[in-house]
Amino acid sequence: MKRLTLFLGHYGSGKTNLAVNWAMNMAKSGKSVEIADLDIVNPYFRTKDSQKELEAAGVKVIALPFANSSVDLPSIPSEAYALVEDKSRYGVLDIGGDERGAYALGRFSPYIREEDNYDMFYVVNFHRPLTRNAEDAYYCMKEIEVASGLVFTGIVNNSNLGAETTVETITETYGEADKLSKLSGIPIVAVTAEKSIATSDMVPLNLQKRIFD
Amino acid sequence: MAEKVLMKGNEAIAESAIRSGCLHYFGYPITPQTEVAAYMAKRMPKIGGVFLQAESEISAINMVYGVAATGKRVMTSSSSPGISLKQEGISYIAGSDLPAVIVNVQRGGPGLGGIQPSQSDYFQATKGGGHGDYHLIVLTPSSVQEMADLTSLAFDLADKYRMPAMLLADGTMGQMMEPVVLPEPKTCTVDKPWALTGTECKREHNIVNSLYLSPEVLERTNIERFERYKEVEKNETRWEEYMMEDAEYCIVAFGIAARVAKNAIKVLREKGIKTGLIRPITVWPFPSEPIRKAADKVKGFISVELSMGQMIEDVKLAEECKKPVSLCSRSGGMIPDVERIVKSVEEMANGEAK
Question: What pLDDT is attached to residue A70?
Fold first, then answer.
């Protein structure tokens, strides 16, 4: 287990859900872990939506005091610097979508590169319109790497169609995921699915969600 | 059938516009519609289109005015405060009889308000907004699928009737993600002999203008335009009726409010209160006829809105004082929930409605 785990990817690919689940799982395995919300792109759907569950599981949440308060002020919590620089702490970093969100990481990437004790996962949903195939997903990946100043170490295939997801929705994307892995030379580390759908070879997720029928 | 993709409402608007042949987009970022501009910024350069972030909303709408005059499909989008800034330009576009699509992903107001969803620009969208005698065709999506479908329709209607069309959405519609089947790519099939395309010295030049200094001519122009509006009212009024066959109470709601209302109707019917819904899909032209007809059958109407009560005025005009009309609403970015709607209908059924 690397000290820092970073989740980046295309806008709306599921980064926050994955980061929250990852942090919860780390906490369950007995690790002391903190999660930092570095999303400078979207004022809605934040790590902080899961603050209660995270804190109940012993995960410290680093987020702006006004995250989810409707104050639309893209900035980075100062405590995140301590998490990145203090080598005794385990951290999960939830970064905003696309290369625009990844710019937020640029401030930290020299420390992260120097320490070299991190995993950076590319979260991809092949049912999103701008990452429908391996080539487009690869382009998005490269844009993020350039913006963040870091390279990915793994791919998480989080393909889904929201409430209409079936096992096939996920398995039909395996071909593109393999292609993306070959194109980039980066391994697929997990296939994820909402827990009621996940088969034994998938990582089950608890989703934050607010649904309007 | 075309394949589904998972999209945000704002992204669905942008992609649908592109597929409708819109290669010109001018805007300025504002929450909760920024994804429209962000999507256009990513896509337009790849397909030979123009994405331009103007220095202000006022610039953006005047760029729309310019492109509309050339007959090309063009769109801008914003959220409430930004749409207020665009009103002058919208009036000029309407006064020049030009087609254009304007998207308003509403947030709470007045003033800077907040970034949570709202429907409180209803008056602005349906009763003018800018100065002068004019209307917009106003479409109100209630799902991400409709964000895509009604954007596509907005371009067709704008071209057909030579007038601006508005997609009146709200923050929930813009931000929610749902599976969507995108419309097939298409282009404008309407002839535009009025467009400024260059005469090549082969024809008289066209004039696009909203200035008429002779009051006789301005009046005649307005009357002719309103003849066209009558056609729109006759041909393009759209609505959905839900469980209205045996309904004793009729909820009128659009957009996100209509979705909550449908869930409330299930609860009400379990309690034995037969309730139905008339969901305007166009709020201009407003579906007055089905409401007038319903007034002869139901015991009362409940207007469910994310505002202090704006559409309720159109409901009252439509039902001609035949039955009581009550308001169930939240404002400022709040959404009426199922419990609140159920309570409002129960109050009317018990004769307690205010």
Answer: 75
The reply to whether CATH 3.40.50.150 applies to domain B240-349 is: no
Question: Can you tell me whether residue B319 is helix, strand or coil?
Answer: helix
**Interface membership of A212 toward B (CB under 8 Å):** yes
Flag whether residue B182 sits within 8 Å of chain A, measured between CB atoms. yes
Helix (H) or strand (E) holding A137: helix A134-148
Q: How far apart are CA B287 and CA A152, in angstroms?
A: 54
In this complex, do A160 and B6 lie within 8 Å of one another by their Cβ atoms?
yes
Q: Number of Cβ pairs closer than 8 Å across A and B?
A: 57
Q: Region of B124 please: left (phi>0), alpha (psi -120 to 50) or beta.
A: alpha
For residue A162, give how far its alpha carbon lies from the nearest alpha carbon of chain B (Å).
6
CA distance B14 to B25: 9
Closest CB to A161: pick one of B4, B176, B263: B4
CA B182 to chain centre: 19
Which residues on B lie below 8 Å from A12 (Cβ)? 6, 8, 11, 177
User: B234: helix, coil or strand?
Assistant: helix
Determine the length of chain B.
354
Same fold, B4-236 and B240-349: yes
Question: Which CATH number belongs to the domain containing residue A124 in this structure?
Answer: 3.40.50.300
Of B5, B38, B256, the CB nearest to A212: B256
Q: Is A11 on the interface with B (CB under 8 A)?
A: yes
Chain B environment of A176 (Cβ under 8 Å): none
The radius of gyration of chain B's CA atoms, rounded to the nearest angstrom, is 21
User: Does residue A211 form part of some domain?
Assistant: no
**Amino acid at site A126:** F
Q: Report pLDDT digits (tens) over A129-140.
A: 999 999 999 999
Q: Do A43 and B260 touch (CB under 8 A)?
A: no
Chain A touched by B255 (CB under 8 Å):
no
Q: How many residues does chain A have?
A: 213
pLDDT one-digit tens code per residue, B18-66: 999 999 999 999 999 999 999 999 999 999 999 999 999 999 999 999 9
- Interchain contact, A161 vs B259, CB within 8 Å: no
- The pLDDT score that the predictor gives to residue B278 is 98
Q: Which of A100, A125, A213 sits opposite B259 (nearest CB)?
A: A213
Residue A188 has pLDDT above 70, yes or no: yes
CATH architecture of the domain with range B4-236: 3-Layer(aba) Sandwich (3.40)
Can you give the pLDDT at residue A207? 84
Q: What is the pLDDT of residues B177-233, one digit of tens each?
A: 999 999 999 988 899 999 999 999 999 999 999 999 999 999 999 999 999 999 999
Single-letter amino acid code for the residue at A1:
M
ipTM of this complex prediction, to 2 decimal places: 0.91
Residue A148 lies in a domain: yes
Q: Measured between beta carbons, which residues in chain B are less than 8 angstroms from residue A163?
A: 178-179
